[in-house]
Amino acid sequence: MKDLLGTNPDREECELEEQELEKNGLQFELTRRRFMQTAGLLSAAAAVGSPGIAIADNAAVQPITLKVNGKSHTLSLDSRTSLLDALREQMDLTGTKKGCDHGHAELAQF
């Protein structure tokens, strides 16, 4: 029987490799049940995200005053908020459009 590399390992080689893996604590048997449990856990973790990160960043909220169209507006914004997001989401000035929604280029018209 050929392995994934297309070679024919003999029984002694396989046994030696298994012993080496077991000695180092790396041998495990992947069952269908174990695979499904792990896949479900990883999917749930990806869907939920990391709520601890968002909680830790709440201290970065700062008051800021913007003068737009001749009027001063005082807002409490996260330090990562872009000018575009502040105008659109906090001040409801939706005439400004996002170009890509990645925040790298801030491709927008003011």
TrEMBL record:
Protein name: Uncharacterized protein
